[in-house]
Design goal:
With 311 residues, this protein is of the alpha/beta class. It has a single domain, classed as TIM Barrel (Alpha-Beta Barrel). An eight-stranded parallel barrel has the order 1-2-3-4-5-6-7-8, surrounded by seven helices. 53% of the residues lie in helices and 13% in strands. The chain starts with a helix and ends with a helix. It has twelve helices and eight strands.
Length: 311
């Protein structure tokens, strides 16, 4: 119950324009600023340097240029151009050719046809540069439109694309069966959005049970699935399934967020598992940052300690 309250509170704060303006002045101002715990920087060069450090530790990366829910076609076009530039930059820089995008950032909420066109622009460049594109899942209102767009590009033979499912949503296990039949590449997460009880499980235990069921299906029958979690119980369950079904280490990967549970990240690599770190960057970092606090309120205590240390 407290987790749900915290998630709702931070979601509400994340939509505050005045708080966003205030945070933007201080959150990334110095190398020790509080948001840098979870955000790799505001510019591409900062993000690339962060990725080099992560890769030097034996981990892989996926880059996300932060932004969502644009309101004009011009903004959607600019976000698309930003991703095209990102891929052109990472290709010669020795950075993993793997990016994550949100469809509302490239126009889904403005014009679905434009979002499909922009997704194809990104995927065409990605195909030329041998880059993989993960389409992130957003709030419940975006789930069906996102899956519809993914189906469209899949039917057009873009096999360099993958999708995300959230175990918190009641519909996700059914969606998973459809994606498994397609042999689509799925990243499994719990979900960071505040949703209605009709759409999502209200209890953490139910979210966890759904996650465990879905990770079993993915590890046994999935196509290079990504098990994205910081939950030790879920990691333990994944390792058990892998051992019981003799799943080869190159048939799946674990994923974690930049700045969260670095101890677990290092231990998984030491155990010989593939570990990919989700590396977000960009000026539109505030909503993402607040969702991270809502997912794990202990993160807020870290931020408060950082602020006190800066004084």
């Amino acid at each position: 119950m407290l987790d749900a309250v915290a998630k709702g509170m931070f979601h509400l704060l994340g939509s505050s324009r005045s708080l966003k303006r205030l945070a933007s002045r201080y959150g990334m101002a110095t190398p020790r600023s509080f948001a840098r715990r979870f955000i790799a920087g505001e510019e591409i060069d900062e993000a690339l340097e962060t990725c080099r450090r992560i890769q030097a530790q034996g981990m892989q990366v996926t880059l996300d240029h932060l932004g969502e829910s644009v309101s004009t076609l011009a903004e959607a076009d600019q976000a698309t151009r930003d991703y095209l530039e990102l891929m052109e930059r990472i290709a010669p820089a020795g950075i993993d050719r793997n990016i994550s995008i949100k469809l509302t950032q490239i126009g889904l909420g403005v014009d679905r046809g434009m979002a499909v066109d922009n997704a194809r622009r990104i995927l065409e460049t990605a195909r030329r540069l041998d880059c993989f594109v993960r389409i992130d899942m957003e709030n419940f209102a975006c789930v069906q439109p996102t899956l519809d767009v993914f189906d469209t590009i899949w039917q057009q033979e873009y096999r360099n694309a993958g999708i995300v499912l959230q175990s918190a949503l009641r519909r996700s296990e059914s969606d998973l069966e459809h994606l498994l039949a397609q042999r689509a590449r799925v990243r499994l997460v719990k979900g960071a959005y505040k949703e209605s009880k009709a759409a999502a499980y209200p209890k953490k235990a139910d979210v966890d049970r759904a996650y465990a069921r879905m990770l079993r299906r993915l590890l046994v029958d999935g196509n290079d699935p990504a098990i994205a979690t910081h939950d030790v119980a879920m990691l333990t369950e994944a390792k058990r399934v892998v051992a019981d079904h003799h799943v080869a280490p190159n048939r799946f990967e674990f994923q974690m967020l930049y700045g969260i549970r670095r101890d677990l990240q290092a231990s998984l690599v030491a155990e010989g598992y593939r570990l990919r770190v989700y590396v977000p960057y960009g000026r539109e970092w505030f909503p993402y940052f607040m969702r991270r606090l809502g997912e794990r309120p202990a993160n807020a205590l870290f931020i408060l300690r950082s602020l006190a240390a800066d004084r």
